[in-house]
Amino acid sequence: MPRSARRPVDIDHLNRYTGGDHAINEEVLRLFETSCTNIVAELERLAESSKLPQPAPEPAPESAKAWAHATHTLKGAARSVGAFELADVAEEAEKCGPADRLAAIAAIQKLKGQAEMVHRFIADFLRAPA
Is residue 31 part of a domain? Predict the structure, then answer.
């Protein structure tokens, strides 16, 4: 199936890990939503912390490590629940970091847009009868 035709979350993929148990799917998706929201907020914080007067020194190595860890964690979590397009966007974001503030902000915007589609899909899934 072409990427553009994919659902934001591949429930069939998730079902392979949960045995199709709706209650487990709900729990996993709720945990993912919370994690995703927290990670995107952390990335925004890291990008904001790089707002320094010009000429700006390089961000602390801890910021670059935190960025890499957060984007890698989001990528893995998204893949585990079947949010493959979000995982792809997280992988793209993993390649930049707070040192390139404009790229970081653009990456965050893409992440937020894709995450919003995933959140809407999850909300619809959770409202649907089991």
Answer: yes
Residue 108 and residue 73: Cα distance in Å, rounded?
15
Query: Please, which pLDDT band fits residue 128 given cuts at 50, 70 and 90?
Result: confident
Alpha helices (runs of H) in the chain, residue ranges in sequence order: 11-18, 22-49, 61-81, 84-94, 101-127
Range of the domain at 36: 6-50+58-127
1 found inside a domain: no
Average predicted confidence (pLDDT) for the chain: 89
Mean pLDDT lowest among 74-78, 92-96, 109-113: 92-96
Count of domains for the chain: 1
pTM of the model: 0.87
